[in-house]
Write a structure and sequence with these properties.
The protein contains eleven helices and 38 strands.
């Protein structure tokens, strides 16, 4: 019995131990499970909170992004700004956002979008040697920059809580004068020069860029395309020239577009044909000095001017939209069917001009050919007599109010005419021109309106001294008295006859007549009165016409090969130079040397030898684009200024900025493959004008506008609220916060 009892006792003890262990294990397990459940719940709450925060963050960022898009749309066409611009016209969150966020945790009614103050702006040089600017597509240029803060608030509300996130980002609105580029193309840009060619200064194309050379082509600054960048000939798509195409990197090294292998293969070149590898390859090879759409190079349009759209030659319809041609068109009333709107009008040279010459073609049966030309001049009555750049006043019908000038009286006073006209005529039977001249590229005899720049310079530069006296050639109708009234602003417009009927084209273009042209003569010195360099005025000279322009002899230059260069002014100075910043705008621009003889203009080119010619001016002009696979070629940037003489071995020195802004509407005969029939190319000693590089631009210069996002950051609620207190006129109401 005892043994059994003792065995049972041992068994009971073991059983109790097991129970105790089981209990302890269960307790520990319960604690672990509880801890895990608690951790899991906490983790779940953290995950929910993080998800909530992420949704609020994305909503805040989306507010800022929408704000940028809205401001870009507004400011693409706006020329002036006020500091409280975004108080008077706040950015509004679109109602579509409510539907977009419906069914999510984002609280639409609590979202906020607020635009900051619009500062006056400042000139900034985008230094290409600064590593921070390596990817800046505007580097190498001076830009006028306004930095505008945009604030966003995002709110996400879920079962487990509410998160509010605040952010800010700067929208840099950057205006770059058109002439901050050595070359600017609003379309595809082509280089395929024969003789050596150097390009100083930034180069930009709103289309593709094609480069190749027979000998050597060098770029000293940036080369940017809103489209693609190719080595080759656009017309054929192949590599037809084997010369070096060298582009400087930031270190100053010359790096070729050619890499290795057969020069006839696309794979031998570093260009857009590399596909996905191109972006990185270009950045590494040229330190960001070469860019394309793969590098987010923006399209740059003059403010208020819509995109250029080329015709599609594969269709019967004409899809061309030549919007920028409006920049050189005459003024029409706001009720005219060809009126293009106030935004475009502000960018038209004919609207900016302080002196306008008008050439009217009048049917007259008593005249040879049954027509004659009447010449007249006028200036606008402006909103401020003391500010010749102020807005012209308008008549009830929307036309601008003119003050007529008597050209005959001017001629009688000074004994010389500013403007004259010659109708084209040939010697009977022999067929050589006896008046006007023949353009062998256009295959047409030209009636010529001749503007004597020497006489115009005399009248304008001496105008301040003679105004109101008996010697005043304008008889008091054109005044130049700073502090009283000034009509001269440095911009002259010459209106040639044009088709003023209602245009059937979407771009409402009004082409000038094709058989009449403006020619500038005796233009070594240009109008630039002494007071123009004073406060409130613009020094320099800009001239525009809606038709074809010919420049005979030197322009704004002394014509001495021993002074100046393709970049340097004749006196070697910039901000204090006596050389005027100048610009020419036309449908097409043809350079004639002083040796050009009208009577031999129809003869073989070998009898039309050019002599050394020097031009210092920006050129804004048109071209006929290359149509691949056809005989129509643009001729490339090296043929943008047109020629009609044998320039073989003769230098054309040019310092300025070349701008191909539109298709020609009057000089419509393309370069073709027969150019050698009417000219031989000059030695092109071309460069970017030091005046422009220093920020000294011609009067009335148009600006291009770009945008850049910078300095994105999240804010605390306190930082956000403090920032809003700095906004001029901010009233904290719902309508000021985007609703």
């Amino acid at each position: 019995m005892r043994r059994l009892t003792m065995c049972n006792a041992r068994r009971d003890t073991r059983t109790g131990s097991v129970l105790i262990m089981a209990t302890l294990f269960a307790t520990v397990l319960s604690l672990i499970i509880g801890s895990l459940l608690k951790y899991s719940t906490t983790e779940m709450r953290l995950n929910y909170s993080q998800t909530n925060y992420l949704k609020a963050s994305l909503a805040a960022e989306s507010m800022a992004e929408y704000g940028f898009a809205e401001l870009k749309k507004r400011w693409d066409r706006q020329t002036s700004f006020s500091v409280d611009e975004l108080r008077n016209d706040p950015i509004v969150i679109p109602s579509t956002a409510a539907a977009f966020y419906s069914g999510t945790q984002v609280v639409y009614n609590d979202l906020e979008l607020i635009g900051g103050n619009v500062p006056p702006g400042e000139w900034v040089y985008i230094d290409p040697s600064d590593p921070a600017n390596q990817d800046d597509t505007q580097k190498g240029k001076r830009v006028f920059q306004r930095s505008v803060e945009v604030y966003g608030k995002g709110v996400s509300e879920a079962t487990l809580g509410r998160r509010e996130v605040f952010c800010a980002q700067v929208l840099a609105v950057r205006d770059a004068p058109l002439f901050s580029h050595a070359i600017f193309y609003n379309m595809d840009l082509e280089f395929h020069p024969g003789p050596r060619m150097d390009m100083n200064g930034p180069v930009h194309s709103n289309g593709d860029i094609y480069v190749q050379a027979i000998d050597r082509l060098r770029f000293f600054s940036t080369l940017m395309a809103n489209g693609d960048f190719y080595h080759g000939y656009k017309n054929t798509g192949s590599h037809t020239q084997n010369g070096d195409v060298l582009i400087q990197n930031v270190a100053g090294d010359w790096v070729d577009v050619y890499n290795s292998g057969s020069r006839s293969n696309d794979s031998s070149y570093v260009d857009s044909n590399l596909g996905a590898a191109w972006r990185t390859a270009a950045t590494e090879r040229w330190s960001g000095n070469v860019g394309s759409r793969d590098h987010d190079v923006p399209k740059l349009n003059p403010i208020g001017i819509d995109d250029y759209v080329p015709d599609d030659p594969s269709t019967a319809a004409d899809e061309k939209v030549n919007s920028a041609f409006a920049m050189i068109e005459p003024q029409v009333g706001s009720g005219d069917p060809n009126y293009k709107g106030a935004d475009v009008q502000l960018e038209q040279v004919s609207y900016k001009a302080g002196l306008i010459f008008e050439v009217d073609k009048v049917i007259d049966a008593g005249e040879p050919g049954g027509y004659r030309y009447d010449l007249s001049a006028y200036h606008y009555e402006r909103s401020s007599e003391q500010d010749p750049k102020s807005a012209p006043l308008a008549n009830p019908d929307g036309t601008l109010r003119r003050i007529d000038l008597d050209l005959a009286a001017v001629e009688a006073k000074i004994g010389k005419s500013i403007l004259s006209v010659e109708k084209y005529a040939e010697f009977p039977l022999l067929g050589y021109p006896v008046s006007g001249f023949y353009d062998q590229r256009q295959n047409v005899g030209m009636d010529v309106v001749e503007l004597d720049i020497e006489v115009l310079t005399e009248v304008i530069n001496n105008g301040q001294a003679t105004t109101g006296t008996a010697a005043d050639p304008w008889d008091g109708r054109y005044q130049q008295n700073p502090g009283t009234r000034v009509d001269w602003n440095g911009v002259v417009y010459v209106e040639l006859p044009y088709d003023g009927s209602a245009s059937a084209r979407v771009d409402k273009v009004m082409p000038a007549d094709r058989d009449i042209a403006l020619r500038l003569v005796k233009a070594g010195a240009v109008p630039n009165p002494s007071y123009a360099s004073g406060a409130g005025f613009d020094e320099g000279f800009s001239l525009a016409t809606n038709g074809q322009l010919y420049v005979k002899g030197h322009f704004n230059a002394d014509g001495l090969s021993g002074t100046g260069s393709s970049t340097e002014t004749d006196d070697g100075l910039t901000s204090t130079s006596t050389e005027a910043p100048a610009a020419l705008y036309a449908d097409s621009i043809t350079i004639l040397s002083s040796a050009f003889d009208d009577s031999r203009s129809k003869a073989n080119k070998n009898s039309r030898d050019a002599v050394f010619t020097e031009v210092s001016a920006a050129m804004v002009t048109g071209l006929l684009p290359t149509l691949p696979g056809t005989s129509q070629i643009s001729g490339g940037a090296h043929n943008l200024p047109r020629f009609l003489e044998d320039w073989g071995g003769v230098q054309f020195r040019y310092r300025g900025a070349l701008v191909a802004m539109y298709e020609s509407e009057a000089g419509t005969i393309p370069m073709g493959n027969s150019g050698n029939n009417w000219y031989s190319p000059p030695q092109r000693n071309w460069g970017y004008n030091d005046l422009f590089a220093a920020g000294v631009y011609p009067p009335g210069s148009p600006n291009t506008r770009g945008f850049k996002r910078t300095n994105f950051r999240f804010l605390t609620e306190a930082e956000y609220n403090t920032a809003l207190t700095t906004l001029d006129g901010f009233d904290s109401s719902t309508s000021s916060r985007g609703h």
